[in-house]
Amino acid sequence: MVQQVDADYQFTGVEYVRAMGDGLVTIRNPHLNATLTLDSRDHHNPTRIAEGDAAADPPSQIRFDESWLPAQPGSAAPNGDGSAFTITPNGAGNARIDREYQRTGTSWTPGSVSFSVAVTGTPTRSARLKVTLNAASTGAVQLGSTVVLADVLTAGETEVLFNVPADTLAALQQTQEPVTIAIEVAGAAGAAVDIKSLRATTYRATPRGQARVGTWDGLWATTASTSKSPVATVGETSQRVCSSGSRTLESDSFVPKSFTWISRHLAVDVRIPTGLPNPAWQGSVQLYYHDRPEDTVSQFAGQFDLTGYPAGEWVTAHFTLPEPIFEALQETDRGSTLQISLMADAANGDCFRFDNVRFMGELQWNGATSSGLGDGPFVPVTTAERVLGFETEDAWHVVQGTPASVVESPTNPETNALSLPVSNYTVIESTSFPTSELFTFGPTLKLDVVSPPPVNPGWSGDASMFLKCMGANMSHQEVATNTVPLPQGSGAHVVNFVVPPAGLALLAQDNECQLRLVLNGPTNAGTYVLDNLRFAF
């Protein structure tokens, strides 16, 4: 990239040339208000586009700002410190804020939208919040699952995630058309909704607090007519249930103590089918917990009535866990299961779908504690702590390569690490974090690596770290560290990445940043364990 600096060699945010190595080159002349885009990503059909107006680079991190206002209908206003919006529905209980994002001249595509939501007032059971995306090639589509506001009021401030449907994401990746993202409140007369920390990723994400049984990449056991469905709110598939009457689904056995984060509130996404014979009764969902070694009978956790929510859409069913079940999640180290019981009629030409079991509301650490440490385990509070420590499953995702998993750290007791299989070219990327959360930063970024036995003694491979940040002016800036050899031989090692001056300048500003780690190793190099990224001087 070519960017402007001031007399003190600080970036001004003005960008002249962007080329990220994927064949797309954008050249801007802000003085002429002109943009030239050279796109050779399809080398059989390269294109050249000249525009009279400089194209604004859409952000990888969507933020709340005044461009979301005014609300139509209803009203919305920034809160006192400007970190959030308070949405107040109109007399009918409805409100909507939205914003269009231009994508001309970029490869940016939204894969998920997330934010924190809190509710005040007295919302009814029909009061709900929904996020939609609208584009010319896709029309208006629902993102993720509708959130019931009364359940948020019960659970407390909740971080909510709305993934773009997989088919919609694939369609958008073939275009550069603008997209409009809308946050809608319906049926919420007498309530107000606070939303903050709005952000987006370019991939379908996994919510923090998701249970180990949370994605239906494998079917839950049932005697009902069932199959996998590619229509999912997280992961690749959901579970389709088509028969009528009472149907029970049971998860694979799990160890409750394996849940890193828990709360007293459990949720599951349910897609209500169209074509139900009696719209006045759309059925209900019950949740049970079964501690198999201790109990011969499943413990009832609650019921969620589906009547009154739109057919053909996802809705989040919420359950407040009774105290015995919540205690079992903290203490049980034996096999347990969750059971979902659906009572509903069969739909004509459509089926119920289930996905995304997760904890909601305020999450608490459920990791192992040490009897020798009175203070208990390290609890990552900020996003930066989760990223640098590889502490949670939502902190990093695999861009290219085999899926990674969070494991207990082999070098730092009472913390987690990331177990990453490496074969040839492997890329992982962190979630974005604000630089304000960094307690310190310096010119060296150290990484603890536990490496597998060598498979190619002549070449161990190499690694590079990239820092990508976005400032208040929504411009992207990315810098690369040095390339270092991957550690050779079993055991713990420390890898040192050198942060260039341009990277230090980004970290010194009020930016949202991401880290990307590229590992280039031998075929089937083995599993590396990554831990404890930290800055040093």
TrEMBL record:
Region (Disordered) residue spans: 37-93
Domain of life (superkingdom): Bacteria
Name of the protein in question: Uncharacterized protein
